[in-house]
Design a protein that fits this description.
Belongs to the class-I aminoacyl-tRNA synthetase family. This protein is an alpha/beta fold. The protein is built from 10 helices and 12 strands. The strands form 5 sheets. It has a 3-stranded parallel beta sheet with strand order 1-2-3. A 3-stranded antiparallel beta sheet has the order 4-7-10. A two-stranded antiparallel ribbon has the order 5-6. Helix 7 packs across helix 8. The longest helix has 14 residues, at 21-34. The structure holds glutamic acid. Glutamic acid binds at residues 12-14, 44, 204, 218, 222. Residues 12-14, 44, 204, 218, 222 line the site of glutamic acid.
Length: 287
Amino acid sequence: MAGRAVTRTRFAPSPTGPLHLGHAYAALTAAALAEEGQFLLRIEDIDQTRCRPEWETALCDDLHWLGLNWPLPVMRQSGRLPAYRAALDRLGAMGLIYPCRCRRADITSALSAPQEGAAAIGPDGPVYPGTCRGRPMAGAGSQDAIRLDARRAFALLGEEEVGFHDDCVMPDTRHRLAAADFIDGIGDVVLARRGMGTSYHLSVVVDDAAQGITLVTRGKDLFDSTFIHVLLQRLLDLPTPLYHHHRLIRDAAGRRLAKRDDARAIRLYRAEGATPADIRRMVGLTG
Ligand code: GLU
C-alpha cells in the first residue's frame, strides 16, 4: 500500500441480520487497508422488506466493540433514491436500459426451451435470455424491473473489454473480461428491481463514486459483480477505484457463512465473554 495517496475505503453491510464473523473480517480488513486514510460505513438498505433498523443499531454496536470508528453521518442507501433515479435516467437517455416484466419462473422456462441450450450462470443467476430486450422505457410499468442492454452498452462505449486492478494479486494484475464474455456470461443485469427503483449494482456504483471511495474492499464472492460495476462506471463517467477482494470466512465444514447464520453472530461470542482480540484470532487476523 506504500506510496498510495489517501485511501478511502468502506464497509457496506445490509442490515438484514446480526453481524457475523464474515462481516467482522470484512470490516477489520477494510479498516486496516485504510491505514491513515478513511474507513467509512455505508448502510445498504435498499431492500426494505429485509432490512431492519434494529439490525443496523446492533451491527454498529458490534463494530464499535471491535474497535472500529467511522465519520458521521453514515450514508444510508434508502435515502438516496433520487441519485439512483438520476443515474438510471442518464442510461435511459443513452438508450441503454429497458423494462422487463419477466418473473423468475418466466426466465427459467424461457431458458429451458429446447433451442436455448445450457444457460450460463452469472453473478445474479441464470443469464437473462433477453425476452423483453427492446421494449421502450416509455412503456415501463410499476411491476417492471429495469435491465441494462449489455450489448448496446459495449457498442456505445466502443470498448472490447472491462477490467480493474485487484491489489490482492501480486504483481498488480489487471483483471479483464472481454465484451463478448460479459454479454454471454453476465448479460443484461437488473439495474432497478421491481418496486425498488434501484439494485445492488447500480447503488453501489453511484455511492462509491459519491463517497470518493478509492479502494473497494469486498469478498471474493463479489469478484464477478465487479465487472458489472466497472461497466457502469464507464457508462456513467465515474472513476474506477482499486479493488481488494478478500477471502471468505468459512465454518468448520468449509461452508461459507451465510448472512443469517446466527450461530456465528458476534453478539453471541460477546455474550460468552469473547474479546475483540479473540474475534480477530478466529478470523485469522493477528496483531
Ligand atoms: N452490501 C453488500 C453485502 O452486504 C456488499 C457491498 C459491496 O461490498 O460492494 O454483501
